Amino acid sequence: MGEAKRRRERAVPTVYHHTSLLRTNLIWMSGVIEVEGKSKGAIHPKLGEIKTDSITRRAMNDFPALAWFTTKLDIPRTLTAGASMFTVDKTTGERKEIKTTSDHVNAMALNRIALGFPVADIPVVRWTNHQGFATNEGRELNESARSVGDDPDDWYVSDAAVDVLRVSEFWYAKSILNPKLERSDAYISDIRRMVTMCKQTPGCFIPPSWLKPEEAQQLARQLGFPISP
After folding, report:
1. C-alpha–C-alpha distance, residues 27 and 164, integer Å
2. Where are the extended beta strands (E) located within the chain?
3. 23 and 41 in contact (C-beta within 8 Å)?
4. Residue 227 — very low, low, confident or very high, per pLDDT cuts 50/70/90?
5. What top-level branch of life does the organism fall under (predicted)?
6. Which of 19, 63, 72, 126 can pair with 132 through a Cys bridge, CB separation 3.0 to 4.6 Å?
7. 209, 186 in Cβ contact below 8 A?
8. How many CB atoms lie under 10 A from the CB of residue 139?
């Protein structure tokens, strides 16, 4: 056996949480990868606040909400095929579903991002070993994933929110409509700085990165937050 192969076999597996520029400021402020259904709505530059509804993915009766990860760096097709999003009217509270194709979802998500975590550093288990895998909801998730080309055997899950400070890899897609992830670990120090600052400073606000400075200040004032440096 070659030394390179031995190193690969000894290496700690990495799992990825796939998200996008639309949500990263919320992740940095919370400091965690939340379980499904717990994340706040994200602010889109054209559509305003956008939310995803975990209930449209599954009823969450057979097993509790989970945070989802995969060993694959390729963007999961389940994130773009049949995704359900909606906007909320701030005056009436009325929900309006956004009908989407994969191109629409990529455009709304802005730039795709993957956060890598060593399996040994976070509280995850293989999805195939989780109690939910063999339930009715689990089987439906597995079948829907396979139908679009994803493999549930690649998934890891956590019953609890995962600490973002454990991140070891950062991947970013420069193109929105044709996303190809590129590794940029130099940004990890910035992630840790922002997360630590928000943990230490109650009410700390990190604006969406796509906002111009004056727009960020306006949004912070509207939400009643100071802006992080």
Report:
1. 8
2. 14-20, 32-33, 42-44, 48-52, 67-70, 85-88, 95-98, 112-118, 125-126, 155-158, 162-163, 169-173, 181-183
3. no
4. low
5. Bacteria
6. 63
7. no
8. 14
Enter the pTM of the model.
Answer: 0.76
CA distance 140 to 152: 11
Domain extents in the chain: 12-185, 199-229
Indicate the average pLDDT of the chain: 78
- Using CA atoms in the order 199, 200, 202, 205, what is the torsion angle rounded to 10 degrees? -70
Q: What is the 3-state secondary structure (H, E, C) of 91-152?
A: CCCCEEEECCCHHHHHHHHCCEEEEEEEHHHCCCEEHHHCCCCCCHHHHHHHHHHHHCCCCH
Q: Are 33 and 67 in contact (CB under 8 A)?
A: yes
Secondary structure of residue 50 in the 3-state scheme: strand
Q: Give, in degrees to the nearest 5, the angle at Cα 213 between 49 and 221.
A: 60
Q: State the sign of the Cα–Cα–Cα–Cα dihedral 103, 109, 113, 118.
A: negative
Cβ-contact 55, 97 below 8 angstroms: no
Beta strands at 42-44 and 48-52: parallel, antiparallel or unpaired: antiparallel
Lowest mean pLDDT among 21-30, 35-44, 169-178: 35-44
